[in-house]
Design a protein that fits this description.
This protein has 421 residues and is of the alpha+beta class. The chain has three domains: 184 residues, Orthogonal Bundle (Endonuclease III, domain 1), CATH 1.10.340.30; 41 residues, no CATH class; 136 residues, Glutaredoxin, CATH 3.40.30. 44% of the residues lie in helices and 15% in strands. It has a five-stranded mixed beta sheet. Strands 1-2-3 form a three-stranded antiparallel beta sheet, with no helix packed on it. The chain is globular and about 60 Å long. The two termini are 42 Å apart. The protein binds iron/sulfur cluster. Iron/sulfur cluster binds next to helix 9 and helix 12.
Length: 421
């Protein structure tokens, strides 16, 4: 397998299976993001999300933080790693932001790294998340996972960054950072990677060299190892490798508690409570051009009102492009297409311009439309359950009634999916 093939296979896998990948840090402004990322060095996102709500409530801007005393900030962040240094960095960072950058978070890496507490990794996160730049932030997970898979042969994070940037298409760089982090956080763990649960074995060099040789002494080939099955019984976990000739049956046996096997609760993604025949809730919001769009503007038209998680993410881009490509056909059938997400007008404008989207994207930053259509709820991603926008499309008829609710959205061919109704 060539390096090019490996990159293509891994990117395709993530594009298809992990269409939404974003930071797990909570923030609502560029300023909050830079503060959260500075705090997250050598600390977990979970811990940072516990301390930032109070900090952001009392110090919501660079001005507020710049006027604070670092000893006071320390009391807010004492439970994170290196609280003394980080408290000083935050206050100094806010001061430099005001004095040298007019209070605006810079977009260039060279400028970002001048800010106290901001290293190359933090600068890359800020540049990619806030400014949508193809910057690859290499943290411990990205470094480990990309080396293990064989995407990189790096001894330092900087080498890793350069190698990844060289091979990953620009439009996927920012998302690839999150793919690799999440894979490292939940599957390719530092001490014991969960290769038995991983779908990248076919392309992973670590799996090929280390795992096969050490854990599977009979040197099974990739294809044979694809048939690994986990048989979990009440008392034991037995990993059975089924192969035509291989005699290896029990590779590992380890006690597990019955609660993990017999009491497992199946997670169900939230689904809207609106049904066919219900009156479509009214809405009014600005689109990417600052124009106010309301449901009542479209009397006599059929509306494709589609809710999507986030601009510029792979799944949402595929969905938008599919609707763009079928837009003429949809218009001929009297459909008006409207997209809705919680992104702001500026983000929508960038997204719509980049992909030449011929329809309105509504900036529902207050999430009033999202809530009215009941598409906010629990989702599962990489084994983690969190709240977010559930990808859903409503077809509203010319009388303002809901004619269809599509919850199994096929992002790549959503336009065709609607035309085939
Ligand atoms: S196969 Fe194992 S080592 Fe390779 S990416 Fe998956 S979990 Fe990591």
């Amino acid at each position: 397998m060539t390096l090019k093939n490996r990159y293509e296979a891994v990117i395709n896998y993530f594009k298809t299976n992990v269409p939404i990948a974003e930071t797990e840090l909570h923030y609502s402004s560029p300023f909050e993001l830079i503060v959260a990322v500075i705090l997250s060095a050598q600390c977990t996102d979970k811990r940072i999300n516990q301390v930032t709500p109070k900090l952001f409530r009392d110090y919501p801007t660079a001005e507020a933080l710049a006027s604070a005393n670092s000893d006071t900030i320390f009391t807010y962040i004492r439970s994170v790693s290196y609280p003394n240094n980080k408290a000083k960095h935050l206050v100094n960072m806010a001061n430099m932001l005001l004095n040298d950058f007019g209070g605006v978070i810079p977009s260039e890496i060279e400028q970002l790294i001048k800010l106290p507490g901001v290293g190359r990794k933090t600068a890359n996160v800020v540049a990619s998340v806030i400014y949508d730049k193809p910057a690859m932030a290499v943290d411990t997970h990205v470094f480990r996972v990309s080396n293990r898979i064989g995407l990189t042969k790096a001894k330092t994070p900087l080498q890793s960054e350069h190698q990844l940037i060289k091979h990953i298409p620009e439009q996927y760089v920012a998302t690839a950072h999150h793919w690799l982090i999440l894979h490292g956080r939940y599957t390719c763990l530092a001490r014991t990677p969960k290769c038995g649960d991983c779908n990248l074995t076919e392309w992973c060099q670590y799996f090929k060299t280390k795992t096969i040789n050490k854990k599977y002494p009979h040197s099974l080939s990739h294809k044979k190892l694809d048939s690994i099955k986990l048989d979990i019984t009440k008392d034991t976990m037995t990993k059975t490798i089924s192969s035509k000739k291989t005699a290896v049956k029990k590779v590992a046996a380890k006690k597990v508690t019955p609660s993990k096997t017999t009491k497992e609760v199946k997670f169900m993604t939230h689904s809207t409570s609106l049904k066919v025949g219900h009156k479509a809730p009214d809405f009014s919001a600005k689109d990417q051009n600052g124009k106010t769009i309301s449901l009542k503007d479209f009397k006599g038209k059929n509306i494709v009102l589609y809710f999507y998680p986030k601009d510029n993410t792979p799944g949402c881009t595929m969905e938008a492009c599919s609707l763009r490509d079928e837009h003429t056909h949809l218009n001929k059938k009297n459909y008006v297409v409207l997209g809705v997400s919680a992104d702001d007008e500026k983000m929508h404008q960038k997204f719509a311009t980049k992909y030449e989207l011929p329809f309105s994207l509504l900036a529902d930053t207050e999430m009033s439309i999202i809530k009215a259509y009941d598409v906010w709820g629990k989702k599962k991603f990489m084994g983690k359950i969190y709240d977010g926008i559930i990808r859903t499309t409503f077809i509203i008829d010319d009388k303002g009634k809901i004619a269809r609710v599509i919850t199994d959205v096929k992002t790549k061919e959503h336009g065709k999916q609607i035309l085939s109704l």
